């Protein structure tokens, strides 16, 4: 679900951003809010923006999953399967403000967006597994660019370059987090029903 097709020479206006916000907010408020919050990263932050703040987002995040077509099996334990909501890729694209941009009918179409796609965010130096003060500072700076008409839409490569930051250190942090989390869970795991409790 992209926001539409545009010619390569198209320059978005503040009105285009407001239309995008209207589309995003309606999608999040009426259909995919809980799943968007659970996605994390830039999609999480845009969902908070659409929902009007953290307090409203918290109450929505704690609700039970609602949409059967959006369900995803998370894991099974003791012959039980657990489900939760999950965003579809095109819904994430709509939340991030993705347009199809082309220069001529014979050229390949490029995707440009107001915000980086979730996949780009997750492979950037900004992604630490949680929303940091640096992420919020970057987000507020981007909002200011948009409000003053200085923002340009970017493609995947351009977003990747602008979000590079401390990627090597971020990857080291994520690896250490994953390793320590696995160690903690192994040390504190509950016995299965076939193991004796001591």
From TrEMBL:
Q: What's the domain of life for this entry? A: Eukaryota
What's this protein's name?
Uncharacterized protein
